[in-house]
């Protein structure tokens, strides 16, 4: 049932191009506009929304953090992202004009369920992004957009995460479309790129052998840091979470701009630091800033593991290890940048003799608060 792979996680990482394509299937019409039949919140209601609040846990929360960049950029609706476990305990400001998006692979996560119940009690509409048909979270929501990742067996979430991102982009683009936005042309371009993205994910998967080899050399390390900016920041958080869960290593993700406000004190000789570099095209100011960060940490002895777009030559002099990813529109980069981090964590766990599919102390579906 593992389809020839040693672990479900490896199988599920390999299934990502299909999972992404399946989640897009039938949702973009030939003219390039979005059809989301399962979103049973009417376009007129969606036009009334004045705030989006995303609630989720763990990896799904990281998908939500990325969604915020997309939703605010394409729709200009303010978007908050909150850990579901924190949400209802702080008396959040919600009303009928708030759209709450609950993201959950299992659809059974108690924290997320309690957060959405709280939102509905305040009169807010709830849209679930979920991978499990008929599970509790979509049943209790006003609308659902299913991710089509297929069953995810490994405890560490991989293909579900990529499909959550796709679903979030679809929601953001759809909201932009129904409300009308000055980014109409950009939305059309992104829809086109999104419909091609599974091919790029496939391409990344074919180049992962050096990432595995690198991971094996780090098996005796205690700490790995991850840096990113813009949508690369949640990607860094996700890379760190995967490493904690699977390799039981101390791993932390930081926004690269925060380095000088504290974390740079952690940098020491030979400390592995993974850096997710934004595209040199898109938001090029950020690209240049992160290149300076890489220089700074390398000057302090860090071993830099740089994830950068093909053709980005500026990073080459400062990368001890360079992992190439295909060029994508800035907001879509997490779909390709996360994959090497999943492979990295999986290989490190294996090298350390850990149980990849069933990490200690964790359960696939967390049905208690
Ligand atoms: C990470 C992981 C967890 C889940 C979290 C939410 O690899 O698996 O962090 O993402 O427990 O679970 P769902 O998405 O089922 O609500």
Automatic annotation (TrEMBL):
Major localization listed first in the record, in broad terms: cytoplasm
CC per GO annotation: cytosol
Top-rank taxon: Bacteria
Limits of the SIS domain: 42-181, 214-359
Active-site residue list: 364
Keywords associated with the record: Aminotransferase, Cytoplasm, Glutamine amidotransferase, Repeat, Transferase
Subunit and interaction comment: Homodimer.
Protein function: Catalyzes the first step in hexosamine metabolism, converting fructose-6P into glucosamine-6P using glutamine as a nitrogen source.
The protein's name in its UniProt record: Glutamine--fructose-6-phosphate aminotransferase [isomerizing]
Organism expressing this protein natively: Streptomyces dangxiongensis
Gene that this polypeptide is encoded by: glmS
């Amino acid at each position: 049932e593992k389809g020839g792979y040693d672990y479900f996680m490896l199988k599920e990482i390999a299934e990502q191009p299909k999972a992404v394509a399946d989640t897009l299937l039938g949702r973009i019409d030939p003219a390039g506009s979005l059809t989301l039949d399962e979103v049973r919140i009417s376009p007129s209601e969606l036009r009334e929304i004045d705030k989006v609040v995303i609630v989720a846990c763990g990896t799904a929360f990281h998908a939500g953090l990325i969604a915020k960049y997309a939703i605010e950029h394409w729709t200009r609706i303010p978007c908050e992202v909150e850990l579901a476990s924190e949400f209802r305990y702080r008396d959040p400001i919600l009303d009928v004009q708030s759209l709450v998006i609950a993201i959950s692979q299992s659809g059974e996560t108690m924290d997320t369920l309690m957060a959405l119940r709280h939102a509905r009690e305040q009169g807010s509409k709830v849209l679930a992004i979920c991978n499990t048909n008929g599970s509790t979270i979509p049943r209790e929501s006003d609308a659902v957009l299913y991710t089509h990742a297929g069953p995810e067996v490994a405890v560490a979430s991989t293909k579900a995460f990529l499909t959550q991102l796709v679903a979030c982009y679809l929601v953001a683009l759809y909201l932009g479309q129904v409300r009308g936005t000055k980014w109409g042309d950009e939305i059309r371009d992104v829809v086109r790129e999104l419909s091609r993205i599974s091919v790029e994910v496939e391409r990344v998967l074919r180049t992962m052998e050096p990432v595995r080899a690198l991971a094996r050399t780090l098996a005796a390390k205690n700490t790995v840091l991850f840096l990113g900016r813009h949508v690369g920041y949640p990607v860094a958080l996700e890379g760190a979470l995967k490493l904690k869960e699977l390799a039981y290593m101390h791993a932390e993700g930081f926004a690269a701009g925060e380095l000088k406000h504290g974390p740079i004190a952690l940098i020491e000789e030979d400390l592995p630091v993974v850096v997710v570099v934004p595209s040199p095209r898109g938001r090029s100011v950020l690209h240049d800033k992160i290149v300076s960060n890489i220089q700074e940490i390398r000057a302090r002895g860090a071993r830099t593991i740089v994830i950068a777009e093909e053709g980005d030559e500026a990073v080459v002099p400062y990368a001890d290890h360079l992992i190439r990813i295909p060029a994508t529109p800035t907001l879509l980069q997490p779909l390709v940048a996360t994959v090497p981090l999943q492979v990295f964590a999986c290989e490190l766990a294996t090298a350390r003799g850990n149980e990849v599919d069933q990490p200690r102390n964790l359960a696939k579906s967390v049905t208690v608060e």
